[in-house]
DNA sequence: ATAGTGACTGAAC
DNA sequence: GGTTCAGCCACTA
């Protein structure tokens, strides 16, 4: 571990934050979507939505992280340019999610908040 | 160390 | 309804 990196943030080092983000994204059910901000809030860093996006960028090397189910708060596929091979909308459509003009159709209905998994 | 960048967001206009 | 602005914070140059 890089000591210069590990204690930069006294609340949570970035490596642990990334792994938590990946764990949350793994919980998103197929056919549903969530947002960067929702994940950030769930992890207690409500203002770190950008870091969630950054974690997605780093999720390439991680197994079983459905990064295509994470969109911005408007349901827009803001990360579509970061998917090599099968595109983001192809992956979404494959789960039955309709995509129109880079936006998830019925985004409000399909939105999944990570906090939902605490209800049970 | 400083400046610029970005898969973001909420408030302000 | 929009569009713009200012915080946000890890990363890179």
Tell me what the structure shows.
- The protein has 120 residues and is mainly α.
- It has a single domain, classed as Arc Repressor Mutant, subunit A (Orthogonal Bundle), CATH 1.10.10.
- Helix content is 37%, strand content 7%.
- It is built from 6 helices and 4 strands, in the order ααβααβαββα.
- It has helices at residues 3-6, 14-27, 36-42, 49-57, 88-93, 107-110; strands at residues 34-35, 70-71, 99-100, 103-104.
- The strands form 2 sheets. Strands 1-2 form a two-stranded parallel ribbon.
- The longest helix has 14 residues, at 14-27.
- It is globular.
- It starts with a helix and ends in a 10-residue tail after the last helix.
- The model is unreliable at 1-10 (pLDDT under 50).
- The chain binds a DNA duplex (13 and 13 nucleotides) through helix 3, helix 4 and strand 2.
| Largest sheet geometry | 2 strands, parallel
CATH topology: Arc Repressor Mutant, subunit A
What is the gyration radius calculated from CA atoms? 14 Å
**Reported CATH architecture:** Orthogonal Bundle
Q: How many H/I helices?
A: 6
Uncertain residue ranges: 1-10
Helix content: 25-40%
Overall form: globular
User: What strand order characterises the main sheet?
Assistant: 1-2
CA-to-CA gap between the ends? 36 Å
């Amino acid at each position: 571990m890089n000591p210069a990196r590990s204690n930069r943030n006294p609340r949570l080092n970035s490596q642990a934050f990334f792994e938590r983000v990946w764990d949350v994204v793994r919980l998103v059910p197929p056919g549903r979507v969530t947002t960067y901000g929702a994940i950030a809030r769930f992890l207690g860093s409500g203002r770190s939505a950008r870091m969630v996006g950054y974690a997605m960028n780093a999720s390439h090397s991680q197994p079983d992280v459905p990064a295509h189910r994470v969109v911005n708060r408007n349901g827009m596929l803001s990360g579509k340019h970061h998917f090599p091979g099968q595109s983001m909308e192809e992956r979404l459509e494959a789960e039955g999610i309709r995509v129109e003009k880079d936006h998830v159709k019925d985004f409000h209905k399909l939105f999944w908040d990570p906090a939902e998994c605490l209800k049970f």
